[in-house]
């Protein structure tokens, strides 16, 4: 266990270093940072002085070391377009993205698992076929188009829900939440559905195929032979065993939910990190791009690490396999 | 941009008549005709490809010819609604461009980006997979480690990032001119991993077989063995992955264009059309965004269904 943990940790550090290198290369070599910071009237001497002050004349390796030490403290300098510290900009928008991602993940689980269980148990009923067709359409529809369809139906035509923004927000320290006001919750509904729909279909299909497999196993047949009630077999014995992969996949998907939030946030003008990143890509605002890249990479690597370690802990077969190698 | 059409792959019939007969009698062909959904999807996909390839001849209007569009025709509703103009089947956008013609021209760009990016992703992925599997050792470790790192991030994020960097490198002035190739390049770069992993897996199996050992014994250089002997035996699954990835590539293109970092509005793709139409959703002109969006959804659904069928048909062991 210890050896595995250490190896996995080293691997995670390596990935972070590679991402940091990419970020640094972006930062340093894509567009001249000095050109972005000064006006047209700056003299060459002033530029040179600024270069010296920013340490751009130091050896590249020294600069990379400085970049990493700064990144560890989440200091990515000043945004080119907003003229504000990047850390502050991202920090202010982080709660919006995390709240949206979390709510859509919960939504995907709450709807996806029951649908998966149902379609797994009643393979040939018309409702299962309907669910499966819907899930196929859900996978084929681009996220942004789902958002636009929802806006068209619920915001433009029926006028039930707002189509943009976060609604009322309450400040809890540095965290701003929209979950405590009625308008905030109303504003959250459409974006959360848009973002969660793809994950929902994924979870549904996963639970379905796991259920189909588990039901065929001997211990379920044995449970049947013992004369246990159908409900107890399905939920106490079968469902429990399907949930390990579901939890793993959901954990891994959490990262991509945060990444896909870029699209949803753009459609609904949701004031989160994704929208900030997109504006940065459009305006070639390298500090924000680099910072976002590092943050997302950190989230992904951490989630992957936790899931891997948990899996190793939960599934004894994996440990035996590793030992055999 | 007009040169793009030449590169759109068209479906080729096998040349020799004996071959045609063999194809008509094969299992795959029978399983194709048996599934109505698959035949319908193939039909729709083909319809899109034809519509896209021959857009300049099929489209009732040329949306890019400034001489033929008139601002007086702007925001006309589609046929069947009040105040419609019968020559504009699906209505017009804010500049008086025909929505139906826009979709045909848009599908042309969307499909071109899709096909080209999947093609490049397949070439890069297959080559790297072959090398990793055949050479092994350190080369294998490096290639596969890169693939693993890339696989932890969603493709759309990588495409977005590559796109952002490429746009920064190209600079403001040329951004629109190179937008098409930047997009192809960024999508290709985010899709190669799956090809590489699959090909590497089958190459590992093939390289220990007798025919490869025999080829090595008579002194054929490794590169030729890879291309001439191993490649034909590992190429099968690549076709399936390519079909499935085509749908994904079209979605990715549309998404990036919708986000405003893809194809510019001067030569709009389907995603760009939805982006343009999105601004008019609230003023009641829903058709400007909805029709291109629906066209996109139908196209992707058809391609996905085709990919699903192909995967099952080529691999009977799966379910």
Core attributes:
heterodimer, A: 325 residues, mainly alpha, two-stranded antiparallel ribbon, B: mainly alpha, globular, disordered N terminus
Task: Report on this structure.
- The complex is a heterodimer of chains A (325) and B (319).
- Chain A is mostly helical and 325 residues long.
- Chain A contains 13 helices and two strands, in the order αααααααββαααααα.
- The longest helix of chain B is centred in the middle third of the chain and has 37 residues, at 99-135.
- Chain B has helices spanning 4-7, 17-24, 27-34, 36-53, 55-58, 99-135, 137-151, 155-170, 175-206, 210-217, 222-234, 236-259, 270-278, 287-314.
- Chain B is built from 14 helices and no strands.
- Chains A and B meet through α1, α6, α7, α10 and α11 of A and α8, α12, α13 and α14 of B.
Brief overview:
In chain A, 77% of the residues lie in helices and 2% in strands. Chain A has 325 residues and is mostly helical.
Quickly give the structural class of chain A: mainly alpha
User: What kind of sheet is the major sheet of chain B?
Assistant: none
Based on DSSP secondary structure assignment, what is the total number of beta strands of chain B?
0
| Low-confidence residue ranges of chain B | 1-14
Say which CATH homologous superfamily of the domain at 94-273 in chain A is assigned. Answer: MetI-like
Low-confidence stretches of chain A: none
Arithmetic mean pLDDT of chain A: 80
CATH architecture of the domain at 94-273 in chain A: Orthogonal Bundle
Radius of gyration based on Cα positions of chain B: 22 Å
Number of strands of chain A: 2
**End-to-end separation of chain A:** 14 Å
Q: Which assembly state applies to the chains in this document?
A: heterodimer
Residue share in helix of chain B: over 70%
Give the structural class of chain B. mainly alpha
Percentage of residues in strands of chain A: under 5%
- SSE run of chain B: HHHHHHHHHHHHHH
Strand order of the largest sheet of chain A: 1-2
């Amino acid at each position: 266990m210890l050896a595995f943990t250490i190896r996995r940790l080293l691997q995670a550090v390596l990935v972070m270093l590679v991402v940091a290198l990419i970020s640094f290369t972006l930062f340093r070599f894509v567009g001249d940072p000095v050109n972005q910071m000064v006006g047209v009237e700056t003299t060459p001497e002033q530029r040179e002085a600024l270069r010296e002050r920013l340490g751009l004349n130091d050896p590249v390796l020294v600069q990379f070391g400085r970049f990493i030490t700064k990144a560890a403290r989440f200091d990515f300098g000043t945004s080119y377009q907003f003229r504000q510290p990047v850390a502050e900009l991202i920090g202010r928008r982080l709660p919006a993205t995390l709240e949206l991602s979390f709510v859509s993940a919960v939504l995907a689980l709450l709807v996806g698992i029951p649908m998966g269980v149902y379609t797994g148990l009643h393979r040939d009923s018309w409702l299962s076929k309907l669910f499966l067709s819907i899930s196929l359409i859900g996978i084929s529809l681009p996220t942004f188009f789902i958002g636009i369809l929802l806006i068209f139906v619920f915001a433009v035509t029926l006028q039930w829900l707002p189509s943009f923004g976060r609604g009322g927000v309450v400040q809890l320290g540095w965290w701003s939440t929209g979950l405590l006001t009625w308008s905030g919750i109303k504003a959250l509904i459409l974006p959360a559905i848009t973002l969660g729909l793809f994950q929902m279909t994924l979870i549904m299909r996963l639970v379905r195929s796991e259920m189909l497999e588990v039901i065929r196993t001997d211990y379920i047949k044995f449970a049947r032979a013992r004369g246990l009630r159908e409900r107890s077999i399905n939920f106490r014995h079968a469902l429990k065993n399907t949930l390990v992969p579901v939890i793993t996949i959901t954990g891994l998907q959490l990262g991509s939910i945060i990444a896909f939030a870029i699209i949803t946030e753009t459609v609904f003008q949701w004031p989160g990190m994704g929208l900030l990143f997109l504006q940065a890509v459009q305006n070639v605002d390298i500090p924000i791009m680099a910072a976002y890249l590092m943050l997302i990479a950190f989230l992904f690597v951490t989630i992957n690490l936790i899931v891997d370690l948990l899996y190793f802990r939960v599934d004894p077969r994996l440990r035996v396999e590793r030992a055999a190698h | 941009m007009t040169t793009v059409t030449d590169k759109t792959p068209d479906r080729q019939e096998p040349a020799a008549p004996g071959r045609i007969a063999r194809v008509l009698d094969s299992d795959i062909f029978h399983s194709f005709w048996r599934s109505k959904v698959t035949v319908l999807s193939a039909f729709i996909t083909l319809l899109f490809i034809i519509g896209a390839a021959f857009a300049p001849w099929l489209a009732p209007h040329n949306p890019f010819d400034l001489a033929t569009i008139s601002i007086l025709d702007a925001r006309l509703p589609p046929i069947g609604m009040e105040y419609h103009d019968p020559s504009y089947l699906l209505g017009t956008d804010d500049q008086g461009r025909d929505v139906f013609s826009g979709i045909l021209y848009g599908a042309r760009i969307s499909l071109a980006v899709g096909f080209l990016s999947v093609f490049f992703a397949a070439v890069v992925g297959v080559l790297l997979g072959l090398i990793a599997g055949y050479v092994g050792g350190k080369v294998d470790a490096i290639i596969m480690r890169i693939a693993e790192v890339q696989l932890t991030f969603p493709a759309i994020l990588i495409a977005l990032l590559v796109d952002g960097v490429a746009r920064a490198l190209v600079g403001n002035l040329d951004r629109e001119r190179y937008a098409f190739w930047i997009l192809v390049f960024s999508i290709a770069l985010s899709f190669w991993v799956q090809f590489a992993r699959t090909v590497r897996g089958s190459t590992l199996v093939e390289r220990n077989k007798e025919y490869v050992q025999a080829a090595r014994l008579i002194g054929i250089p490794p590169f030729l063995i890879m291309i001439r002997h191993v490649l034909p035996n590992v190429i099968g699954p690549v076709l399936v992955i390519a079909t499935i990835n085509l749908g994904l590539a079209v979605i990715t293109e549309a998404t990036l264009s919708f986000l405003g970092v893809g194809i510019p509005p001067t030569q709009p793709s389907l995603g760009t059309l939805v982006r343009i139409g999105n601004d008019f959703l609230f003023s009641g002109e829903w058709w400007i965004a909805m029709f291109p969006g629906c066209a996109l959804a139908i196209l992707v659904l058809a391609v996905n269904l085709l990919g699903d069928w192909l995967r099952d048909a080529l691999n009977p062991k799966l379910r």
